[in-house]
Every structure is written in C-alpha cells, then in structure tokens.
Amino acid sequence: MKKTLAIFKREYLAAVRKKMFIIMTFLMPLLMIGAFMVPTMLMEGGLGEKRVAVIDGTGQLGEAFKGPEKAEKSEMPMRRGRDIPQQMAVEYVAATGADADKAAKPYVARLGEKNGFDGVFVIPPDALTTETAKLKYYSRAATDFMTQGRLASRTNRYVQERRLASRGMTSADIEKLLTELTVQPVQISKSGEEKKGGVANFFVGFILVALLFIPSFIYGLETMRGIIQEKTDRVVEVLVSSVSAKQLLVGKVLGVAAVGLTQIGIWLTMAALAGGYFATAAKVGGDNSFQLLRASTFLYFIIFFLLSYMTYVCVYAIGGSVCNSEKEAQQLIMPITMTMMLPWFLMGPIITNPESKLAVGLSLAPVWGPLTMYVRTLVAEPPMWHVAVSIVVSLITISLFFWITAKIFRVGILSYGKRPTIPELWKWLKIA
C-alpha cells in the first residue's frame, strides 16, 4: 500500500507542478467559452457584410428591404426583430411588368466579383397573388442559408401584409394577426414542481458533459504517454524491480485521476462563482436560474466522472503497455476511442429526448453508461433504479477492464519490438 501511495504521490505532484497544468487550468474555461461564443457571434454577424441584389417582380415590396432606420417610416408597422440587419447591404430593383429572371441575369453575372454581389434574391411577379410562387436565391455558396433565410422571412412577412391589406384590413389589425407568440418551456418534476426548461438547460447540459468526458480522454492520453515514455527510457525496468506491476498501474491510474479531479474542481468552483453572480442578477429580474443546478448535479458529476475516467484510462493504459511509440498507440486506440465517444456524437437526440429507447439503452450499457446517464440526470429525472443499474454495470465493467489491463500491463511493460497481435494478447492474459 505504501508503495502504491508513493507512486500516486509522484504522479500527482509531477503533473500539478507543471507550468502547463497551471496555465491550462485557468485558460481552459476561457477557451471553452470562446468555443461556444465565437461561432455564435460569427453566425449572428453573418461573417461580415453581405451585398445582395433584390429583384422584385411585383415592384411593391421595396419597404421590406429598407434598413431599420428607414423601415420605421413605413406605412406598415414592423417588428424590429424582422428588420434587415445592418451587416446586409441590399440593392433593391423594382422589375415591375418585366421578367424577373431576365432582369436578374446582369446581377447574377456579377456574383463573386470584387464590386459585385454575394447573392441575388428574385421575387416573381405573381408573389402577391399566387400561393405556389417560388422565390429564388442565387449565390456562389450552396450553403448560404442564413442570408437566404433572412431575405425569405422578410419577404414572406410583407407578402402576408399586402395580401391581408388587399382584403380591406387595417395595418393595426394586420400587426396583431401576424404577431408571433413565444413558447415558455416548463419541466414538470415527479413531485409536480414546475421548472423552466429550454435552451439554457440544453447548453448547461452540453458544457457539463464536455467537462465530464474531455478530461477523461486528456488524462487517459497522459497515462498512455507516461507508460510509453518509461518503457522507452527503460525506467519501468527499475520501477518493477521495486514494486509489482499491479501496484505501479494502480498508483499511476489513481494519481492521474486525482490530477483530473483537481482541475475539474477548480473549473467547477470558477463556474459556480460566475454562475452565482449571473444567476443572482437574473433572479433580481425575475428569472430563477438556480433551478438549472441542483445538489444532485454535482454529486452525480463526481460519481460519473470517476466511472467514465476509470473506464477510459484502462483502455489507454493497455495502449501504452502493448505499444512502443506514441504513434503506434494512437493508431491502436483511435478506433476504440471513436466507439467510446458514441454518446457524444448522439448528444443532441439524448438531451432532447432523454427517455427514448436510445438514451435509456446507452445509459444502462457498459462503457457508454456513465456519460449517457449523467446527461439524463441533468435534463430529466430518470428512475433511481436506472441510475443504480448504470453505476453497478459501470463498476463491473471497470473491474473487468482493470483485471484485463493489469494482466496485459504486467507483460506488456517489459515487452519491446513488434506490437503484439490479438492472439498474442490473449496468450498474455492466460500466462500473466
């Protein structure tokens, strides 16, 4: 036990004393926030200003494409949320009585030019009178759906207004009829308590799940690299002369796990302080954001972090034991890692429908259970027997993995040369 603790202490202190550990501990939250915020800001900004030509075959929808400051003077009252954004420069062309497609050709020919257009939006002459009329959007990019969507939404709004106005309705009545209602999502707990749900829960779930599994892979890789390095430097030969292979494995795994928990603990503390500040500010405004975080959230986080970590790290320890270089180990581990990440790839369906057969099945399965079950506890209230079964299955899986890892580790750390084949690994399991 003393030898295991000595290895544990060595692994832990060697990691936490590194400058990179300290830097990344405080820098990683900022990087994660940037990873979520920057793409959103870029999408909101449309990746710069777009120059768009609008060819209106009806000749009656010019006000739809004015900027916000001009739109307020329109005959029809409009909601600001539907104004053409400032980063979109629109050149409006009224093609009344002409073929809109022919009128658009000179503008289409200028797509992609230096002083040309990023897109050309064509409104057919029968847009106000025919329900089957088709709007067209020309661009160099087949996926410029954001610009297309903004233009189409604005056009449809005005087409609806004109159609209603032609039937004798006043502008005030039209505004009331076309006002969109907002949806307030409400989660009902098993006790009947009402809680707000929606987008906030979705993003909280994604962030906490990322904190759950990303460190497991990072420190699993650290374990693998450490074993390979010690094999390459022949340090492991000295270590196993003083301690057993099992003691060495246990000390390494627990030491790196403690490093991960230390880093996660610091991140959660920082998140709690920031979240507490913003949640208090929101509560003053009448929005109780504390309901997104419960005491069980952090308890389950610790439980399932340890379970997922112990599951993944055993696989990486095997990779380090049987390989002689990091390149070899990565080639061996990559397909296994991709399989283990299945719940992350299916995170959208799992979060939006946590009681589906897919979510329940993955949460009770070996390897995938910790990650999936934690997601379910975040966004729903799964039966306690589901949680208990997931924990028990994970513990059995870890025990089996640890038994296999210890046997392969015992032989593999002193093996050099060619990477063993599957039959050779099976032979190691029997003789170790």
What are the SSEs and their pairings?
Layout: H1 2-16, H2 19-45, E1 50-56, H3 68-71, E2 88-94, H4 100-109, E3 119-123, E4 136-139, H5 145-165, H6 171-178, E5 186-188, E6 194-196, H7 199-232, H8 235-239, H9 245-284, H10 295-322, H11 326-340, H12 342-345, H13 347-352, H14 357-363, H15 369-379, H16 384-412, H17 422-431
Parallel strand pairs: 1-2, 1-3
Antiparallel strand pairs: 3-4, 5-6
Helix pairs in contact: 1-9, 2-9, 5-6, 7-9, 7-10, 7-15, 9-10, 10-11, 10-15, 10-16, 14-15, 15-16, 16-17
Describe the structure.
The chain is of the alpha/beta class. The protein has two domains: 49-178, D-Maltodextrin-Binding Protein, domain 2 (3-Layer(aba) Sandwich); 198-431, no CATH class. The chain is 63% helix and 7% strand. The chain contains 17 helices and six strands. The chain has helices at 2-16, 19-45, 68-71, 100-109, 145-165, 171-178, 199-232, 235-239, 245-284, 295-322, 326-340, 342-345, 347-352, 357-363, 369-379, 384-412, 422-431, and strands spanning 50-56, 88-94, 119-123, 136-139, 186-188, 194-196. The strands form two sheets. The chain has a four-stranded mixed beta sheet with strand order 2-1-3-4, sandwiched between helices. A two-stranded antiparallel sheet has the order 5-6. Mean pLDDT is 76; it is low at 68-83.
